[in-house]
Amino acid sequence: MMALRQIQPIQGHSLTIPLPPAFLRYPQAEIIVLPVGEAVNTAAMTTELFIQRFAGALPEFPEIDPLGYSQEREGWE
Fold this sequence. Notes:
Layout: H1 47-54
């Protein structure tokens, strides 16, 4: 019996499991999915815990001028 054990990130409601070439000889595979780690209830999190958990998850955006004027126009004085 062959077995494959992987830990994959959950993306929405789906998983992608890359299979080794040896699995291509078989028409079907049995899949058993088990959660890893603890479930997170983000609705019950305090703001501080939420920031600790998701810090660094957002990309860095460039600084934007608060008024939206990033360039000076010539002739305006």
